[in-house]
Amino acid sequence: MKIPMTGRRLTQAVLMASALTLGGCASFSNDGGFGEVQRITKSHTGLDAGWHKTDVEFSAARQRVAELLAKPLSVDDAVQVALLNHRGLQASYSELGISEADLVQASRLPNPRLSFGRSARGAEREIDRGFHVDLTRLLLAPLVSGIEARRFEQARRLAALETLSVASQARKAWFQAVAADESLRYTQEVLKAADAGEELASRMAQAGNWSRLDHAREQSFYADAALNVARATQAQRSARERLTRLMGLWGDQTQFALPPRLPELPATPDEYQDIEQHAVDQRLDLQALRSQTQSLASNLGLSKVTRVINVLEVGATRNSFSDSPTTERGYDISLEIPLFDWGGARVAKAEAVYMQSVNQLAQAAIEARSEVREAYLGYRSSHDVARHYRDEIVPLRKRISEENQLRYNGMFISVFDLLADAREQITAVNGYIDALRDFWLAQSDLQMAMIGQPKMTSDGRQP
Fold this sequence. Notes:
four-stranded antiparallel β-sheet
């Protein structure tokens, strides 16, 4: 909708002064909206996020990453590297710049238009000059600016959510990589025991002191152990590569070191009160949807305001003639006639989009409650399983192993029984490693479920 100005000089002067004053208020922020992203990231992870725009900032980030990679990476170190070095995350921050540019653009008033015309009729010459202002955009500028401000707020929430999502994925990938290293080591120990049993069985079979059936069983144990080592090696490499990708590493950087063991299981799991309400109030994805719904509500109001008058322009004119010393002054008005389109379709579309967002927000809130309940139940049950392994299964296997060692020393059992018991003890320890890994993954999923939509699978990997 275009709205012209009157031809009076006083009105023109006042309108121009207003435009210059209001237009000068719109400017870009110093941090591009990233300060809020940093604050949210710091409050949830205790770590720093960085948006690198200059060579100096990139250089500082690379130096910090090199310092962290110079020692075995803790879980927080791995997350910090990902926050500083993940280029996909850096690319997502550009959405902040795009959104802020839209906000600044919406906050600035439309440029006036100058028109110039020259016509001739015989010896007569006529020169027309015009000055026009889009009055509709001028009047609706505060409303449009408010809409873009909410969109900018939504972009900041989404950027923070993406940052925390990358942090959560890096955290889970670290647990998976360390657990894979541990599992590979213990699987290799099983292979050593199986190899010793198979070699001893071969010698005894050659001496005629061992049956072909028993010999085949030992060979089968060894074959299974070798296969398990191959699978564990593949899993270890895949887990490490996933962590490498999330940290944005390449070249010599991929030779980073990890600790030999996972963190110990906490004595008791954390307790949360009103966890569902906390999720509904604090989740960034719900906050972004709320902002989107509010923006659409304002947009619906804008559509209703402009449904009939879509083009209204006013302009001042000044015409001079070659055959007359006088100058013609006046104004003109351009108004779109709503003869065929009364804006009903535009309003209906805005209403439908708004109701769609309302229902999406309601559904997202329902899913958030369910997701946080599921994550909390998984967290508690995984703690119970890991604790059972730690307090019951592993000590029992150790006690059995000690008893078998005594019986072997007393020559009540054979070396093959002792080797079989060693394999079972190592398998029990490996089971505890898997349970401990699952607990830390479940804890990461729970933390993410309280701030945004988690991405959970049975093994903690991205679906």
